[in-house]
Amino acid sequence: MISLKSIKKSYNLNNENVQVLKDINLDLFPGQLTYLLGESGCGKSTLLNIIGGIDNFSNGEYLFNTKSVKNFSEKEWSYFRRKKIGFIFQNFNLISHLTALENVEMSMILEGMSKSERRKHATELLELVGLGDRINHLPNQLSGGQKQRVSIARSLANNPDIILADEPTGALDSKNSEQIMKILKEVADQGKIVLVVTHSEKFTEYADKIIKMKDGLITDVTHFKNKENNISNEKENHKNLALNKGKKINWSTTLKLAVRNIKNKKWRNTLTALGASIGIFGIVTIGALGNGVKEKITSTVDENTENSSISVYKEGTELLSDSMLNKLSNVKDVQAVYSYNPFQASLEASNKKKVTASADTLVPKKNQSMYGEHYITHGSYPSKNNQISIPERTAEELYGTPNKAIGKKVKVVTQLMSLKDVYQTVETQAVITGTVKNGSIPMLDSVGLSYPLSTQIMNENPQTKGKSMQYTIIPSSRNKVDSIIKDVKKMGYTAETEEDSSKEISNYVTMASVAVGMLSGISLIVSSIMIGIVLYVSVLERTKEIGTLKALGAFRTDIRRIFVTEGLMVGILGGVFGVVGSFIVGKLANFIIKEGFHKPSLQLFEFNIYQIIVIVILSGFLGVLASFIPAFRASRLNPVEALKYE
To answer: Which of 492, 516, 545 is the last residue of a domain?
Structure first.
């Protein structure tokens, strides 16, 4: 039973208090179909919304089975609507992307009913209203009368005590209108309170009571049948108001609703995800490039030999005099000192084939172990004047196989490499004594010049005679490396091992990656804002849907979770798009390097699965952050205003 005592409702409009309901006193009983008649604007819809708990009253008392609902919290009102109220709207308010069956199921989903139970019950209800053959149809595939019958079935889903119908026949023809009223009469006869709000006096023959309103007041109450005394104590006790079992929509249902909403606007969400993927693409690509460069650097340094030598040079000075040899040789624990010079070299074979490569000065044969046991793959280590080693790939380009290159004479044109000055070239003849692994020097296939040959080339050039770019120190033992470096630095020179050099290069790569990553991060922030804007627009577009869910008893947290889940999914989708795009570009670049530049060992882009997973999760997290404002706005929409939104 519902009892309204001195209910008043007023609004503040332009600093003026407008009274919509004025001292409403009304009792509604189970088993009655009650008509609430009145012209538009008389307050009947406001009264219905107050009874349904989607609008508040200003003054008065609202009793449900003798219990006051005046001080209900927002959550208690939601649960009250879910358990006790079934709404039938003039405009149906079906959720457009759900089938008839799923629309009816929604109330039961909010109640936490199992899938099998709610599917069975929803099917029975649709069959009850004559729509057993339309259960899988979307609302846009149904006629007006069919939509209203789905709305009736939905209102009965949780077996509520009260059915509130707002102009249920207003959008229907006479035939469908009469069918709807017959159904509502049958529902009332089952012992439920049925209140029909209308401005039309058609079909009043189905009413047990007619209440007329005008200007916010009840002007007349007519009883056709008296059922007030038919309420059993057992029924009332069974229907006592209990508000301690409210459940939230489970995650699987939330995910399903989010997926449906995304599919409903699939092109917009796909374009949004593509926009979000730009930042992810940049971060993944830079990460893969950094991985590839670092892997190449570390793979070329033998763990057993990375501290076998120390490079010494002077910052800001291109060439050092030979007098440095004596100075460095006198440093404690130094076994030997050799000059080192890097060159750019052009090799021409007797068959007129040419290749261009970098070239490095090798240490004398007695210290060749610093390059590792497997440095020479074919032939022997170049130790005499006019002897060189070449990479296997270079040997294949010139002679077909590495073995065929051994012992061949080549014309070598070299030029000392420098960032400061340009040096003249030196031409000489050399014999290939051995081949080395491809890419044995970081990032480049390098020709090895024997120590005597390198010295000869430097002395043949007047610009470099008696000088060196830098020196290589061979320590007496590896555990003396740190002390030697310390002593050399005291002399005013820079000293570092191969490991130090590799770390420095890696640091430069890391810094470059961070710099580019920051730019990609800006793109991520912009894309996150874009996701937020799209979801905000979605809130506006789905305002009625949100109002419907609230009228069915959805909690604020349910609404928030739907939109947050959508933000998460769009973010993850953007992350996946970015990763896939980066993977395609990276693999394509590796293929071009391998086939176009003939460097199969140089995989410039190396993708790390753990990095990818973290980045996709990050993208989803940004989508969640972007969805917070739209989600909170959606959850706080007033259900009455939401249902009226156009």
So the answer is: 492
